[in-house]
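Journal club side-thread
Mid-discussion, someone asked how the predicted structure for our own chain would compare to the paper's figures. Pasting it here so we can look after the session.
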Amino acid sequence: MTERRPLLEEDLPREAGDIADACASVPSSSGYRALLQTLFRGQMSGAAIAMVIRQVVIMALSVGSSVAVSRWLGPDIVGRFAILIFVTQGILGYFGDLGLKAALIRKRGDLEATELATAQTVILGISITFAVVIGALLPIALRLVKLGPENYLPAVIFLVLLIVRNQRMVPLALLERAMRFKVVSAVEAAESLIYTVLLATLAFLHKGIWCYVVAMGCRDLFGSVAFNLIAHPPFRRFSWASIRPHVAFSLVYQGGSLLNMATLAFPPIMIARLLGKNAVGYVSWASTLSLYPLVICNAMARIYLPAFSSAASDPALLSSRVEKSLRINASIAWPACAVLASLSTPIIAHVFTAKWVPAQPLLYAYCVTAMFMAVGVPLSELFFAQGDAWFNFRLCLWMTMLTWTFGSYAVFHYGLIGFAIVQAALQSIVLLAFFHARRSKGLRVFAPLREPLMLSAALVLGNLFVLRSMAISSIYRLTVLLVIEGVICSLFLVRMIMSWRSATGPLAAEPSPA
């Protein structure tokens, strides 16, 4: 039998062409809507659609799994899982690929077989090394977070699963460079379906922490095998020199990742020690629920960096794209967060049950966090496009230091309420990004947020009036109210899109990509 030749980037069939060509095809006088039209048709037709559909499917499945877990598992199991995930995957999850996936995606020119094989080998070696070290330290780590020896086996399995999951990095880099987002979206949606079905089924059977172990195991095995079979990266070559330039690039990237990890480590370490695993369960639940309004924003986030980079030499075009990115993210996430926070009392009572009521202040705080994240992502990508990555690093550093200082004081003296207040207040650090971005010529960063802020405030006030005027005594009334507000938010988005259409002219008048 002849050996199968490795599938390199140039061998992958392109769904939509090259991202640089797609960005270059945007007329310099067009706005953000023209950018999206270019991405949805021609050389990138289907790629952006696939990302959005993937996020919607994953969101729907995540909501289902969250409801199932909330009803059939308690805060103690959720908190135990959150602590175990941090202990086993917190460090390895951020450093398992050394930033090589991002470096391979951003590289100009073709990827060499030796380069890919070396990256795959390095990622495997780093993953195994970290897993062995963390596994040896597990007894100490579990005592630190107040978990008993019965958690050792699930923790070891989580370590093994992350080694398996990291083996998707190089195949994913190949597929994303080739713009095969339909394939990526299909596999990731299948992973979410596997995870949700198994998690909900095992939660219904009250299998405790093993609900997560089995669901994650099947998901990660399926995803890694599928991506490697589709892309078939090479394995049998090694040359450290081929990836040395990529490692240099990843230093700042990994520095930011380290700081983000340190910030996220606060609940499973400090809150776990001071307040117990139930409190960590409340924090994990509130954080997860507040991220659902960001699902579409996260899908569009991959577009921002290439779009801003291609417009870096044209200040007017760059300003237009950034402003409309801010507006669309705020228009999607802010009203959703406003509805979630203002209707949290009936939502918790009728959907998640009363045992999650103690987490309501945390949900308020994390909704504020989600609102700032929605508008912070485009600004972060703007700074990367302008070669100002160190500013992002400094923001992460400030967030980490203040979380561990003020957050520790608040948790020690005031418990979860204190943490909720500090968590919400620390989001004001993102305002530094707004003031920093205003240095760009002609860029307005606050004006695009005016209308989304007014709609969100109106939704909050309207919901407070409804809750005082009538009792939301059943899930049917709650559903009707949510549908009405969903229609209002949809009409707002349609009006915004139509205003862009009138401003940028008909689609037929725009030049098509070559």
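Post-session note: Residues 389-425 form the longest helix (37 residues).
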